From TrEMBL:
This is MO25-like protein At5g47540. The gene is LOC101491565. It comes from Cicer arietinum. Signal peptide: none annotated. PANTHER family: CALCIUM-BINDING PROTEIN, CALCIUM-BINDING PROTEIN 39-RELATED. GO terms for biological process: intracellular signal transduction. It comes from the Eukaryota. Pfam families: Mo25 (PF08569). One of its GO terms (molecular function) is protein serine/threonine kinase activator activity. Belongs to the Mo25 family. InterPro entries: ARM-like, ARM-type_fold, Mo25.
Amino acid sequence: MKSLFKPKPRTPSDIVRNTRDLLRFLQHAPDIKRDNDKVIELFKNLRELKTILYGNSEAEPVPEACSQLTQEFFNENTFRLLVQCLPKLNLEARKDATQVVANLQRQQVQSRLIASDYLEKNLDLMDILISGYENADMALHYGAMLRECIRHQIVAKYVLESPHMKKFFDYIQIPNFDIAADAAATFKELMTRHKSTVAEFLSKNYEWFFDEYNSKLLESSNYITRRQAVKVWCEFLAFISTIRILN
C-alpha cells in the first residue's frame, strides 16, 4: 500500500548537502562506473542545481532559493570536491557543473559575493583549473570556471603573480584550436578585467611579459596563434591606455 504522505520536497540546501556527500563517495571510489546509482543521482543533482540557479522554460530563478544554494555550497568544500571530481563525470554533468560554478561566482548573499571570500582562502584551486589546459578533456570546462573566478580581483592577482602566468604563452600555442582560443580568452580576461591589479603586475613584469608576448605569440610561425595574439593585443592596448602604463 502506497503511503498517503508525499515525501517532503528537498530544499536547495538539502540538494547541495546530498551532492557533497555523493562527491565524497565518488572521490574515494576510483573504479566507479558512471551507471552506478549514486553517480546517476549525482548527475541529477547537478542538473537540479543548475535549474535552481538559471531557471527553466517554466519558471525564473527564485532569489531565496539561489541564496540558500550559494550559502550551502560555500559553507563547506563543495567547490573543491566538484573541481577535483570533474574528470570522473560524464560530458553533460561536466557542462552542468561548469555552469553551476560560473553562476555562483555572481550570486550575492546579503550584498556580499561569498564566492570571493571562499576563493580568497582556497586560491590553490586555481592551480588545478589552470593546469586543466594540459588535459584536452578538461581544458574547456576548467577554463570556463577559471574565467568566472577571475571576476574576483583577489583571484586575478593570485594568477598574475603565480608561476602559472608564463604558461599561458604556451597554452595559447596549443595545436588544438578550441583549447588555444579558450586560453587566449582567459589570458585576455586576466589582462583587462582589473585595472589596478594589471597596472601593478606590469610595473613589476613589463620586460619579460612583452618579450614573451612578442617572441612566442606575435612572432609565432603559426598563423592562428598570431591571429589570436593580435586580437588580444588590440584589446589589451585599448585597455592599457586607460591605465596610463604606456606614456
